[in-house]
Each structure stands twice: as C-alpha cells, then as structure tokens.
Amino acid sequence: MPSFRKNEHVSWPRVTDVNSYLVNELIGVGLNRREARWLVEEYMADGDHGAIAALRAGAQRRLDGEPIQYIIGHWPFRSLDLDVDPRVLIPRPESEELVGVALSELADSGGSAPLILDLGCGSGAIGLSMAQELNARGLRASVICVDESLDALAVAKHNASKHELTGVSFVHSSWFDALDTSLRGRVDVIVTNPPYIGVEQFATLDAVLTYEPLGALVAPDASGVAGFSDLEEIIQGASPWLVANGLLICEHGDMHRQAVLTTARDAGMRDVRDLDDMFGNPRFLVARR
Ligand SMILES: C[S@@+](CC[C@H](N)C(=O)[O-])C[C@H]1O[C@@H](n2cnc3c(N)ncnc32)[C@H](O)[C@@H]1O
User: Fold this and answer.
1) 217 SS3 class
2) Residues with Cβ within 8 Å of residue 176, at least 6 apart in sequence
3) Closest to 224 (Cα-Cα) out of 259, 272, 257, 274
4) What class, spelled out in words, does domain 86-288 have in CATH?
C-alpha cells in the first residue's frame, strides 16, 4: 500500500506565495491592487479545488463593472459584517457617520430603552448597527426597520439573524403609511438615509450605480429641488411619531442643505442643524420635536 508522503525534494509554494501570484495576475488583467487582494482573500480562504476558477470568474465580473461588494457578497459596516446583494443598496461610509451622529445625539438625550425607527432600512445597516451598539452599551433598544421593498426587508432580516440581534422588528411600509398608529408620539429617534439623487443627476453618475436598486437611489423632485420628494415627505411627517424632544436625523444630498433646514423649521421642529460629512460636504439634518 503506497503512502502519500510529501516529496521533501520538491519546493512547494507556500499558500501566501500562491496568493501573491494570484494578486499579481489580477492586477495584470486590470484590477487595482486593493480589490485584487480582497478578491484573493475572499475566494482563497477555503482553498478548495474550485477556488481559483471561482476567483477568476469573480475578477471577470469586477472587470465587467459589477461592484465588488456584490461579488464577494458581504461588506463591513461599523462593527457588523452585512450580507449584501443586488436587492439592496451597498452601505456607504457616510451612513456609518450617520449612525455615529445618531448615537451621540441619543447619548445626550438619556433614556435606557430607546425606540428607534430606521426608515428605508435596505440591508439593515443603520438600524442593525444602532441595535448592536446600543445593546453593547447595556441599553435595551428597540429598532423598527421599515422599507417599501420586500426584497430589502428579506436581506435586513437575514442580517439581523446573522448577527443574532434582539429587539429588532421589520415593517413593510412606504415611510410612515403602514406603521402601527400606537407608535405615534413614542419614537425616540427617526433615522433615515432615503433615496435623494435626482433623475437628471443620476444619468451623470458612475455606471456602477446601475447595479444597485433604482428605488434605493433616485427620488423625484419636490418643491423645485432635485431628488427631494422622499426627504420632504419624511421631514414633514416625522413630528407626530416622535416623543417630545425626539430626534430626526436624515442623510441627504450635497445640494439639499437649505431645503432640509427650511422644511424642518416649517414643520415646527426645533434645534434644527445640518452637519457636514467627513469629506466636508453637507450631509446630515439633525432636528428635534
Ligand atoms: C439609500 S437606500 C438606504 C438603505 C440603507 N438604509 C443604507 O443606508 O444602506 C434607501 C432605502 O429606502 C427604501 N425606500 C425607497 N422608497 C421608500 C418608501 N417610499 N418607503 C420606504 N422605504 C423606501 C429603498 O428600498 C432603500 O432600501
């Protein structure tokens, strides 16, 4: 019976050498180094016999224009690793900042069991991060994730299970329309990253966005402002759902600062401010009931 023994005279490439070779191969066909490394780390992690063929197929998808997040199927958002696919928007770093703003505003408000509404939850990025981080601080947060897309809600539910998050529920609704009326006057924080790209602007943006759901990105114009209709509807509708002093925090487009401030003040909100993001662009409306 022959035994399978490693031939000591052959110099076997180490796994890291194979991976370096593959990274260089992907750079050679046109990927940048960072994405080449991500793909190699992802596909070669298990190292089964089909891994290299799958890696090359993944690289081809990237070269054809598909976002790397959909190819590898997951993406980090704050402390969560979220599964993402073309049913949901790929979460952005600005929205990680949005969560940071919401958490620091909430810390100033006090309360040990906040009720949070994530309007347009997509993958669940914002609401699930808030649940996870507040629970880690010992608070008993309840988060309601809302979306009009059943596909998005399925992904968000999957991500909540993946991270074993408690205190999270899901509602299929167009903004406030199908929310249980018993929530009126009880919500501590409404946090949202709604669609805010105008139709004309969308046509000028990177073609990679065409892989994401259109309904997650583009909003009709309102009050003469491009891409403003969802923001306007949310800001005008928020107050009755909030507790006294409750927070509304909205991510918005570069051109929306004046419109969000005016709409929030006209809706009777107070302590109305707008903050820049890490790139110095106008991005986050903060207002209180
Ligand atoms: C910009 S994406 C944000 C997704 C996620 N919150 C994030 O930051 O990654 C907007 C989300 O709003 C949802 N949406 C669009 N119109 C809506 C509406 N009328 N009511 C509820 N959700 C809506 C989309 O399906 C999408 O998931």
Assistant:
1) helix
2) 119, 237, 241
3) 259
4) alpha beta
Domain boundaries, the chain: 15-64, 86-288
| Atom 24 in ligand 1: residue holding the nearest Cα | 216
pLDDT category, 49, cuts 50, 70, 90?
confident
pLDDT tens-place string over residues 27-45: 999 999 999 999 999 999 8
Cα–Cα distances in angstroms (integers) from residue 107 to residues 57, 95, 101, 283, 286, in the given order? 46, 18, 10, 21, 14
Residues whose CB is less than 8 angstroms from the CB of residue 83 and which lie 6 or more positions away in sequence, other chains included: 73, 74, 123, 155, 158, 159, 162
Q: Give the residue whose CA is nearest to atom 4 of ligand 1.
A: 122
Q: Is 80 near ligand 1, meaning CB less than 6 Å away? A: no
| Total number of residues shown for the chain | 289
| Closest of 52, 47, 56 to residue 26, by C-alpha | 56
Cβ 127 under 6 angstroms from ligand 1: no
Expressed in angstroms and rounded, the spacing between residue 216 Cα and the centre of ligand 1 is: 5
* Structure confidence by residue, pLDDT tens digits, 120-144: 999 999 999 999 999 999 999 999 9
124 CB near ligand 1 (under 6 Å): no
